[in-house]
């Protein structure tokens, strides 16, 4: 084992241990704590980078009293229990009302709790599916997305407009949603910002 964080902290810990006459068990414990803490920080940074968040906004800057989302609803969503139940969440409302901010803050909270998050715009998702549709590897692409515990799709554009060719719009909204669901249980915890999945959203801001 390379134990990089333990090796980095060892000089300072050993110097303190000698000066304060620590018991050997205390020294070992302190070194192990440094290694565990360092690995947790590294894993958090890796999950945060892999998620692909757009701005880095968290609940530290969120003003819950300024949001039109009822406070009890905000608190319930922040427990992330709905993610564990594999429930979907759709947040929709006028531009500038904090939809993306709230969903990104939920995503960061999920990462901090050890969950894997994947953030997409519909344009990103559309390009991904179009690229894999050419060689019939859509199933594999969707399977990779579904390795995340929480998938967030952020966009206001109609789904078919993004996933189909702009000129001929070769996929309808219903066809695209059917593909996504059939290719890998896309019901898994999707945070969809805007009314991207149709005119009948599950939740409303």
Explain what the structure shows.
The protein is 52% helix and 8% strand. It contains nine helices and four strands, in the order H-H-H-H-E-H-E-H-H-E-H-H-E. The chain has helices at residues 4-20, 24-51, 71-78, 81-84, 99-112, 122-133, 138-145, 159-163, 173-182, and strands at residues 89-91, 117-121, 150-154, 190-193. A four-stranded parallel sheet has the order 1-4-3-2. The protein is extended, with a radius of gyration of 22 Å.
* Relative helix content: 40-55%
Helices and strands, in order, run as HHHHEHEHHEHHE
Oligomer: single chain
Structural class: alpha/beta
Uncertain segments: 158-205
**What do the pLDDT scores average to?**
77
Roughly how many Å is the radius of gyration?
A: 22 Å
Total strands: 4
N-to-C CA distance: 50 Å
User: What order do the strands of the largest sheet run in, or round the barrel if closed?
Assistant: 1-4-3-2
Largest β-sheet summary: 4 strands, parallel
- Shape, per Cα inertia axes: extended
Total count of helical runs of at least 4 residues: 9
Strand content: 5-15%
């Amino acid at each position: 084992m390379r134990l990089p964080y333990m090796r980095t902290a060892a000089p300072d810990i050993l110097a303190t241990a000698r000066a304060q006459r620590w018991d050997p068990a205390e020294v070992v414990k302190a070194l192990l704590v440094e290694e565990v803490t360092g690995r947790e920080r590294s894993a958090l940074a890796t999950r945060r980078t892999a998620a692909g968040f757009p701005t880095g906004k968290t609940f530290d800057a969120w003003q819950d009293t300024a949001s039109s989302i009822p406070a009890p609803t905000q608190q319930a969503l922040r427990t992330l229990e709905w993610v564990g139940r594999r429930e979907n969440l759709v947040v929709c409302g006028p531009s500038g009302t904090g939809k993306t901010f709230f969903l990104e803050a939920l995503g960061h909270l999920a990462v901090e709790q050890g969950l894997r998050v994947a953030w997409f715009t519909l344009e990103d998702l559309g390009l991904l599916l179009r690229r894999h549709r050419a060689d019939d590897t859509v199933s594999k692409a969707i399977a990779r997305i579904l390795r995340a515990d929480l998938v967030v799709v952020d966009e206001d554009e109609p789904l078919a407009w993004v996933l189909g060719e702009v000129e001929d719009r070769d996929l309808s909204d219903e066809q695209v949603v059917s593909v996504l669901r059939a290719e890998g249980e896309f019901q898994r915890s999707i945070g969809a910002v805007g009314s991207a999945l149709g005119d009948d959203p599950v939740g409303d801001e």
